[in-house]
Write a structure and sequence with these properties.
Elements (H helix, E strand, L loop, with lengths): L1 H28 L15 H13 L8 H17 L2 H5 L2 H17 L7 H7 L2 H16 L9 H7 L5 H16 L3 H5 L2 H9 L5 E5 L9 H5 L22 H5 L6 E5 L5
Length: 263
């Protein structure tokens, strides 16, 4: 498990470095035919945003292209295999949120969370965000979400508007205080993963015979899953960060399962 968590950290560092390079390079050389592709072209969610326009007119929305479809199909395949693992292994915004939460714990001694009843209600906001973005994008025939997208704002490295500065500040503050606030409550791509992830092959299972119900796993879960109250960790919520398994004091009380296998 230690080797897996190290691989996950390496994956996060690499993807943040790559996306940062893309963002900085775009600012240096600019766009256009002889420039660098915009950051929007490297976002899987762009495939959803541009899909209606492409299938209706054969044209991509401005700043999107075939790369968005390739990325979207790739992460959807991944979600059918490992649920929302993309969020904690390959999403640069997810990595930044995770690191900021750890930094917040050092400063404040803890992270904050909503009461479980409020948390469960707020999780549905992801679907509201998804539907609103798709509807407004189709109506406006443009990427209406780009000026509000924390991913674009964070890695674009050019705060062009007051809106961008405000969203940047809010994202940083909330990430310091609350584990994966954007992931849990507002991310539209996370909403897609939560639907596709219900059919995924790799899951985390709690062995009730070995579990001592100490609650360590529940406290460590950044997605606020009540691990000690379930046998199979909900695939539509779990991002496969493996924090619960790596901190569990009882060997094999929590295990990764593939398909119908036990471990």
């Amino acid at each position: 498990m230690k080797k897996l968590t190290n691989i996950r950290l390496l994956s996060q560092v690499l993807i943040v470095a790559i996306i940062s390079y893309i963002g900085v390079r775009h600012q240096i050389v600019g766009g256009g035919p002889n420039g660098s592709a915009p950051l929007d072209s490297y976002c899987p969610f762009g495939g959803i945003e541009t899909a209606f326009a492409y299938f209706q007119t054969g044209q991509f929305l401005d700043k999107t292209n075939v790369s968005n479809f390739v990325l979207l199909i790739s992460v959807l395949i991944m979600s059918f295999i490992a649920g929302s693992a993309f969020c904690s292994w390959l999403c640069p915004l997810g990595a930044i949120q995770e690191w900021l939460a750890k930094l917040g714990k050092r400063f404040f001694g803890r992270t904050y969370s909503f009461p479980m009843s409020i948390h469960k209600s707020l999780r549905h906001l992801r679907f509201v965000t998804l539907l609103a973005i798709v509807y407004l994008t189709v109506q406006g025939s443009r990427l209406v979400f780009e000026e509000y997208d924390p991913f674009k704002i964070l890695f674009h490295f050019n705060f062009e508007t007051t809106t961008a500065i405000v969203i940047f500040c809010i994202t940083i503050v909330l990430s310091l205080l609350i584990d994966r606030f954007w992931c849990k409550y507002l991310c539209p791509l996370g909403a897609v993963f939560s639907l596709a992830g219900r059919f995924n092959l790799i899951n985390i299972r709690r062995n009730t015979d070995l579990c001592v119900e100490c609650g360590t796993c529940t406290k460590k879960c950044p997605m606020n899953i009540e691990v000690t109250k379930v046998t199979n960790i909900p695939a539509d919520e779990c991002v496969k960060c493996l924090e619960c398994i790596s901190t569990c004091p009882k060997s094999d009380a929590l295990v990764l399962t593939v398909g119908g296998s036990r471990k």
